[in-house]
Amino acid sequence: MQIEQHGVDVIPEAERTGRPRDIVSFLIGSNLALGVVIFGWLPVSFGLGFWPAVSSLLVGTLVGTVLVAPLALVSLRTATNLSTSSGAQFGVRGRLLGSAIGLLLSLGYTALTLWVGGDAMVGSLARLFGMPDSAAGYAIVYAVLAVCTAVCAVYGYKLLLRLSRALAIGMTTLLVVGLFAYAPHFTTQAPAGAEYLLGDFWTTWLLSVVAAGLSGPIAFITLLGDYTRYMSPARHSSRRVYLTTCLGLVAGLLIPQLFGTFTAVAVDAATDYAGPLVAQAPFWFLVPLLLAASLGSIGNAGLMLYSMGLDLDAIVPRTTRSKATFTVAAVSTALVYLGHFVWDAQDAMTAFVLLLTAVGAPWAVLVLIGHVRCRGAYDTEALQVLNRRSVGGRYWYTAGWNLRATLAWAIGSAVGLLAVDTPLYTGPLVPRLGGFDLSFLLSSAVTAAAFLVVTAGEKTALFPAAAAASNGPAESADPAAPAPAAAGGDAHGPAVAPRS
């Protein structure tokens, strides 16, 4: 096992050995964590019983999967991650929007995963060995989780794939055992005294569809390309990659979330999940629960940390993926400690993630529109201009920015922020929308409409990248900058000298 040598450069064809079934392993293995399980508790906390909660998760997850899964096809064609690929739509500098969104989204979800997993670990250790529920206990648990996730993320794709394969089997087994552990107390009714969060059944059910179901696939808008860039379109069809991505998203999200719903009604978890889950677990299930909390958190946070390293690598071309990953590992660990011991910031982080998702959905819509318009044909070398500290090329547009796409994204994002509902902030459009958080759907629709309007007069089959081709090949902006690598080379150097 070696540390992965590639960052956001073009993956050489000879190394694109990934298979469609690998993405199923990634999406199932990395999601069987309590940080994902807790989304199954959300509908119950809204006042829904078991079957209404299950139906809301099913509808939201299926709709979200159909909308998000096509993003996996972009990196299948570009052989780099999605934020770098978005340079075809936003420009080689404008794609930094995607890198920033992906970096911050992954940072938020990493913190939430480690918080939830750490809480369950401390509770399990307290019941098993009498470890006090103290600051020192949390500090030790967070440190262990942080070190393990950092090691997995730094080693990269191959280690994470092996880990995901093992977790897909092992964690599914643990969750099935958990069903038997909590089955004696299972009921289909909502927790005692629970009331519908929005006052009536249907509005609360629709809130659950969006907040618990649809938000799951939306969280992967910048992540799917991290896996499919290692797959070759010469060996695997777009149809097969799309279908396996759909399977991975649906299974990877519904398995842990439905377990969360089942256990939430079993332990009568109305306002808190991790505490009652541990407190009411049979003693014999505490060890499996401890394994699920620790290994699941490492798998989920490891994938997020890996994605963060790639995004920081794309933002700072002079660094390497390994250095970028160590940097974001330190930042995320510090955030976890500060959030738990100083700020009590879990609600703030949840709000932060929801706000980022509201601005991330418009970005994903524009990437998909561009992919359809260019029919999956990309100039992979032109996408690497910024990584090589050069200028020019097919996707240079105006000083590296596609102003039309950026304007459409800004309009859609503004609408999304006005329509989002978080624990700390409610947009002014939410009351006018019946109390629903429709930020994902509304911002996406507005972005698509705005982009069609601002590009309506173009003579390039509504795909503005073609107009930028006249700018010619990329020219170095820095005489000391490395020469552009051949296809398959490293974005920071020649093809024969990959970096770690």
From TrEMBL:
It is found in: Membrane. The keyword Transmembrane applies. Pfam families: Transp_cyt_pur. Its main location: membrane. The chain crosses the membrane at residues 23-44, 50-76, 96-116, 136-157, 166-185, 205-228, 240-263, 283-303, 324-343, 349-374, 395-418, 438-456. It is a multi-pass membrane protein. Residues 470-500 are annotated as: Disordered. Keywords: Membrane, Transmembrane, Transmembrane helix, Transport. InterPro entries: Pur-cyt_permease (IPR001248), Pur-cyt_permease_Fcy2/21/22 (IPR026030). Belongs to the purine-cytosine permease (2.A.39) family. This is Cytosine permease. It comes from Streptomyces spirodelae.
